[in-house]
């Protein structure tokens, strides 16, 4: 009975279940919701990341300096619009630069995904404990996103965009690519953007050659370019360098000994606070000419040229350029205000090898090498003489009387009375060869009147001269201004056997992606025949012979050279060439100040010294003689063929069909026909006038 009335004991768990059942059910409900919400968030996050990866990053407005290189790929200069940025690959940066930057800016760069959570937590703790903002937590990727695409304003919207762009950068680029971009665009003060520009500005060396001390000094600047620049505050810069060196030790990049050695190293800076960003003067006139050519002739966008990081491959020969600049300095007294210009062109292809537009680009940027403001004087005469030879109006032995002469033109309504230099006249007949060597003005105008002014102008156009030419008799004496560049190019036609090549300075232009956006492709044109070119060369060689106007520099030249000097009251010229190089030199004052005799003699030595030094590694070459050139011995007095009655060692050249056919007769002997004259002496190559002169010059050089 008692056992039946005893109630069974209830288990504890159901009682607990009943008590907490509601809470358990509620927890399960929230757990399911949480799992669902987490799944949704993860899905949205992954979807958002995938979406961001498919989207293009905004266009970066970061400009990059462009560069000029010479014909051998040697750097001439960088150029930019106030922002000096020169991009290089990571492999072209010193490893110390990379290590120092990572140690001080982002130690976990290669392990985080754009956001350093540990660094952020550490920064929060430090800043809260110190009640200040002593530490930042921006990664290199975040800094890159901010510098490339955003302003530095502190707004919530900007921070959201920064996070988005940071994620995109991490998804689209490798860590090395991000680091390379960062080091190429970060600001190092004084207008220098990127480690390459900074290395060249502070230490005048590429980033690849920076040592540990230099690298750690530069790595500290981006934190505060004004505050930490060694040019502004060396004390702050050294404190920052010490901090970076210690961080490198802690990260295992260097040891304590290297740290102490780098900190104690005395650095030599190549810039000062007040200096401009770039002080490149070598080939500065040429650089300006190339840029203007690219913009105005080739149609390359100016912004792309200055900010797009393009590379312009030029025709310049850096060694020749340095020689040209040095000869201008040597040829003008330091105390003189006289200016000079020099242009050297390879006549075989039109490549401009050297260009100097004045004695000091820093003081005066006006490029006189391309200016069409100076009268060429007697250097114009070869153009009218080649016109006469082409027309067969004259031969090298044709004669005019050198005496004061009044010429009439414009159907007799006008007169022109030229004068020889110093009012000196032979008062007798002289040949073309003598006239060009002595630069006789009467002979020149006589030739002009015979062949016609328009014909001469037409010839100059064939030779590449585009400057306006006034159709008056005085044109024969070079009264219409022509640029040194045009004159060097025109004389190059004589050097290149009658073939004209347009003068060019740019071979190709390549954008920063390596794509060629322009490549030179000019076709040469035949301006005159090779026989006519040779005759002109033969005449111009005599300018350097005894009696020639440039004879005083013959001792400097140890190779066959042809050329012509020219003077006006305010200009002095020397233009000449070898088979490999055509050079024009001008000397004068910018304000048309009259030249003294000594000042007018400075162009020829500059020319001669430049040619010899520029071609020092090239063996002397003869000007080739075309097959259709007839060479005969001539009696100087009569201009007829030499004979036994009138023996002569004067060898002369003629276009086939224009040579004399009669033989010279002695005063006491009558010859009835050409057949009765003695046969023409045979011509040996070693008696050839040009070869003889060349060999004599080589012997002079050898005996020195």
- The proportion of residues in beta strands is 5-15%
Helix content: 40-55%
State the strand order across the main sheet: 2-1-5-13-14
Number of strands: 20
Distance between the termini: 151 Å
Largest sheet, in brief, is: 5 strands, mixed
Kindly provide the radius of gyration, computed on alpha-carbon positions and rounded to a whole number of angstroms: 40 Å
Helical segment tally? 24
Task: Sum up the overall morphology in one term.
Answer: elongated
The helix-and-strand class reads alpha+beta
Q: Which parts are unreliable, with pLDDT below 50 for 5 consecutive residues or more?
A: 131-135, 272-281, 668-704
Quick check: average pLDDT? 84
Q: Would you write up a description of this structure?
A:
- The chain is an alpha+beta fold.
- Helix content is 40%, strand content 12%.
- β6 and β7 (351-356) form a beta hairpin.
- The chain is built from 24 helices and 20 strands.
- The model is unreliable at 131-135, 272-281 and 668-704 (pLDDT under 50).
